[in-house]
Structure formats: C-alpha cells, structure tokens
Amino acid sequence: MAKRKTFDDSANEDTDKEFSLEESPSGDEVDKEDEDEYNELRQEFEFFDPQPATDREGIARLLRQLFDSDASSFHLGAIADLILNQPTLGSTIKTDGHQSDPHAFLTVLNLKEHKDQPVIKQLIEYIGNRAATNPDLSPLNHVLGPSVGNEVGLILTERLINIATELVPPMYDMLLEEVSWAIDDKEPYTFTHYLIMSRTYLAVPSTFNEKTNRPIKKSKPNAKEGIEEGHSMYYFHPEDEVLQRHATLYGSFEYVKQALEGASDAKSTFHDFGIKTRGHLILIEAARFEAAVRHLQEEFRDTSTSTDATVAET
Fold first, then answer.
1. How wide is the angle at C-alpha 23 spanned by C-alphas 19 and 25, nearest 5°?
2. pLDDT, tens digit, for every residue of 59-89?
3. Cα(242)–Cα(45) distance, rounded to whole angstroms?
4. Is the pLDDT of residue 222 over 50?
5. Fewer C-beta within 10 Å: the chain N or C terminus?
6. CB 158 within 8 A of CB 66
C-alpha cells in the first residue's frame, strides 16, 4: 500500500493513494421503493509525502491541536521543519491536490538523532516531566535516558475531525515501509522503540447552568454518576486503544498549562458534561510495532465502506 515518494509536476500526476469513502443509509432507513433515491456522500482522500514548499503552516496547526493546552510552550514551526526535512518519511492526507492544506499527518522523528536540536531537547524534557506525574509512565525516563542507548522514534500524528479512523492504518503501514526503505539506505531509523504522542479526554461535570446562564458552584464528583476520572476517559484517536494492546507502557497526563475554568464547557457535547483534555503516551517496542500495525488494519477494516486505492507511478 505504499505511496510513491515524489510528486512529479512535469508529468502532472499525483504520486499518491486515493481512497473514496461512500456513505449510504441502511435498509431500515430507506423504504424499498425509495432505496435508489438516497443522497450519496463521496469524498476522495489523497495520501502525499510531506511537501516542504506548502505544508509548514498546515502541519504546525495540527501540531497545535495535538499539544493542546501546552502547544504555546513549543516552537511548533521548528517541529514542522524537522518533519519537512525528511520528506520521504511520513504521510499527509489532503482532498484537493498536493498544494492544498493537510487534513492529517503522521511521521516519526528520531529523538537521539535530533537530540541537539533545542526543540527536541525541550520535547524530551517535557515528556520526562509529564511521565513522572503518572506511575504508569514513569519508566519512560529510563527508556529515554542518554546512558541507555535506546533509539526512540517519536510518532507525531494528528487529524481534523472529518478524517475517518479507517484512513489511519494505511498511514501506519506506509510508515513501516518507509522506515524499512530508510534502513536499507543506511539512514538512522533503526529504532528500538516507538513512542506515540496522543490525546485523551475526560467527561467532567459542567460548570455552567444553562437555565440561569450562571456558573454552577463546584461540588465533589459523584461516583454514582460515573464522572470520576478513573471511569470517564475517552480517546480522540480510536486507534490508540488497539495500539495499547501491544504497548510496553501507556498512560495519560495532565497538561502543564491547565485550561481556564469553564473551558471544558466550550467543548461540551452534552448539557450535563464538558470535556477535559489530557496528553497521552504509548510506548511500543520496535519488535512488536509491525504486529500492532497489522492489528490496526484488521480492527478498522470497514466492509460497509467502498474503498478504492490507486497509485500513480512516476
């Protein structure tokens, strides 16, 4: 399922993969007499290599979404530059050609190779500090320690809400193949571990009374309502639940910069609850990573979705 490695503008061919997702109503939703009259929604998604000339702003915006409340702590442009400096590794998803903004991206950065870059030093310190706040993540500090000699690949991936989870496994599959090609070319991608940066969220009691338009006085969480932190975690990236089954360790952490009071209500989807976002880390040994990717492909294979893939050779 590998996409081609370059975009040949002279040949006027998009060296990508194209997926078409069609949505149609079930038999229960459409009368038999009208089953040919339903509206069809069709959207084509194209997979591209990162485009240094056009993707910097789009990737920086997605990084801002990924790092959430702590995004302002990092030079996101510098991270985007590192991603774009390895354009044959990783993928973006677009809907309007290679010059359009990416709706999603996935890539891996070698933390050891880039350890002298200020933004990578900052990232490693940040991950270590956040990991220390969760016993499930605290062993990460040993894994990332300079004296251990591990080669850790930091996987960064984010997408807009309209990107279906079914499009994620191909991105991971292409990453596996690209890393393999890079190793064959003696490039520094022989990893011992993959560390995935992600996000989760908690359903939290609303702080706003819709009837009175006034803040609700704070009260202790009610366990009977299922709103304690231990029972209300959800995933922005559903694939994380599958990847965790192959992980050495995983867990969530509080952001350093907590959102302002009431911010959770701005993200609320229910009247009685808001959401509180948290960072999430998943560490997978390289020897188990391919199996994790294969598991993704099996888990998110959608037999009800029409998926067509095409590759333009250059």
1. 160
2. 999 999 999 999 999 999 999 999 999 989 9
3. 23
4. no
5. C
6. yes
The answer to whether the CB of 130 falls within 8 A of the CB of 253 is yes
Whether 196 has a pLDDT exceeding 60, the answer reads yes
Q: Which helix (H) or strand (E) holds 179?
A: helix 168-184
Largest CA distance in the chain: 70
Are β-strands 152-159 and 193-205 bridged in parallel, bridged antiparallel, or unpaired?
Answer: parallel
Q: How many residues does the chain have?
A: 314
Tokens of 26: 């079930």
Name the phi and psi angles at 32, rounded to 5.
Answer: -55, -35
Residues 6+ apart with CB under 8 A from 96: none
Contact partners, residue 260, CB within 8 Å, separation at least 6 = none
- Provide the β-strand partners of residue 242: none
Q: Tell me which range, 32-46, 149-163, 263-277, is most confidently predicted by mean pLDDT.
A: 149-163
* Distance, C-alpha 238 to centroid of its chain: 9
Q: Is the pTM of this model over 0.85?
A: no
Cα separation, 279 vs 288, whole angstroms: 23
Residues 6+ apart with CB under 8 A from 72: 257
Write out the two tokens for 101. Answer: 């903004």
Q: How far apart are CA 111 and CA 32, in angstroms?
A: 57
Residue 90 and residue 108 in contact, taking contact as beta carbons nearer than 8 Å: yes
- 312: its two tokens: 């333009």
Q: Answer yes or no: are the C-beta atoms of 18 and 45 closer than 8 Å.
A: yes
